[in-house]
Amino acid sequence: MYNKSKYYTYKTGGLFLNYILDHVGIAVRSIDDALPFYLEVLNGTLEDRYTSDSPGVEVHVAVVKTADKVMELLEPTNKESPMARFIRQRGKGVHHLAYRVDNLDDAIEEARQRGVRFLEDTRRVNLRGRRLIYLNPASTNGTLIELCDYLNS
What we know:
With 153 residues, this protein is an alpha+beta fold. The chain is 20% helix and 45% strand.
């Protein structure tokens, strides 16, 4: 039977690390065009909207919350941004899954001990105080996964 728990815990070296689904990043060509679906059909609430012009990021972000999930709609700020390349190569849709951890540094160390590789140039603190890093899709069977924690919590 499927375990509906939103927590996935595994034991490593005596530590228990919790990975909680934080949000789903969704690549869109236009936030304004995509928002009505998430707000009206999925009954979401627009929680935040901002732009990150940091090199290698370059996205407009709309944070939409439904009853129990958070989605980040990600629109490229220019035609050469990584998000624009993603949309050209793979199309609109799910870009990444983000898992919140209690301590990002500990989670990175534990994952490295298990042979997981990271996209080192993606490690940063975003405009809303979220520390994050992306795992190399070669370590995740092709899925882009973000690990994150929050400085304010």
